[in-house]
Automatic annotation (TrEMBL):
It is a multi-pass membrane protein. Keywords: Cell cycle, Cell division, Cell inner membrane, Cell membrane, Membrane, Transmembrane, Transmembrane helix. Its main location: membrane. This is Tol-Pal system protein TolQ. The chain crosses the membrane at residues 23-50, 139-162, 182-204. PANTHER family: PROTEIN TOLQ, TOL-PAL SYSTEM PROTEIN TOLQ. GO terms for cellular component: plasma membrane. InterPro entries: ExbB/TolQ_transport (IPR050790), MotA_ExbB_proton_chnl (IPR002898), Tol-Pal_TolQ (IPR014163). Residues 116-214 form the MotA/TolQ/ExbB proton channel domain. The Tol-Pal system is composed of five core proteins: the inner membrane proteins TolA, TolQ and TolR, the periplasmic protein TolB and the outer membrane protein Pal. They form a network linking the inner and outer membranes and the peptidoglycan layer.
Length: 240
């Protein structure tokens, strides 16, 4: 290697910042855009994780509190008057929806026990669907990040490596000191993609399982309460 090549190689190796911030600032526009997008997705992913964890905790406590109140022996009318005047969720929302349909039907002179039972079950089904929609909201974003982030990072890596090879061909230098910075910049995009994807996948699986368990508790209460109302309907509206 002649003196000119040695001087250029030394300047290249000393001028390359191999820190994470240095690699980011040295990356091309497309690779920077990919990295920033993945970092934004990662921040939003963690925001969703913390929000869902707190919300599921509150929801679980509300279910426990309502179950204790419901099975304490308090009359259904008293519990309905207590809950109907305030915003409720979970089992409380199912209870209020069923009782509201119950009272409306009897105020209008319900005569068919089968029709009343069907309307009550429909009211609880609609309310349960709304509650599950709230529990499962934004989980799709976690699934999308978990599946797409590695490929987006890989796209940034491919673009970065192509750019590095073009620079190597233009400089006619193939030593490790010349190649390494460009390759490191490109691989950083894949690393950020994995950093965004791994927590998203783990959180999606965990939160989906938690949402399923909470939904199962809602369904169990809906079935139990429907059976209670069915017995009372038979007492108030004898079958003909």
């Amino acid at each position: 290697m002649n003196d000119v090549a040695q001087t250029a190689l030394a300047a290249t190796s000393h001028g390359s910042d191999m820190s994470l911030m240095g690699l980011f600032w040295q990356a091309g526009f497309v690779v920077k855009f990919v990295m920033l997008g993945l970092l934004a997705a990662s921040v939003w992913t963690w925001a969703i994780i913390f929000d869902k964890a707190a919300r599921y905790g509150r929801f679980r406590r509300q279910l426990n509190q309502f179950e204790n109140t419901f099975w304490s022996g308090q009359s259904l009318e008293e519990l309905y008057h207590t809950l109907s005047d305030r915003k409720t969720s979970g089992m409380g929302a199912l209870f209020v929806a069923a009782m509201r349909e119950w009272k409306k039907s009897f105020e209008k002179g319900a005569r068919s026990p089968i029709g009343l039972q069907t309307r009550i079950e429909k009211a609880m089904d609609v309310t349960m669907a709304r509650e599950m929609e709230g529990l499962e909201s934004r989980l799709g974003f976690l699934a999308t990040v978990g599946s797409a982030a590695p490929f987006i990072g890989l796209f940034g890596t491919v673009v970065g490596i192509m750019t590095s090879f073009q620079s190597i061909a233009a400089s006619e230098q193939t030593s490790l000191a010349v190649v390494a910075p460009g390759i490191a910049e490109a691989l950083l995009a894949t690393a950020i993609g994995l950093v965004a994807a791994i927590p998203a996948v783990i959180a999606y699986n965990k939160l989906s399982a938690d949402a399923g368990k909470l939904g199962g508790r809602l369904e169990a209460f809906a079935d139990e309460f429907s059976a209670i109302l069915s017995r009372q309907i038979d007492e108030k509206i004898p079958a003909r």
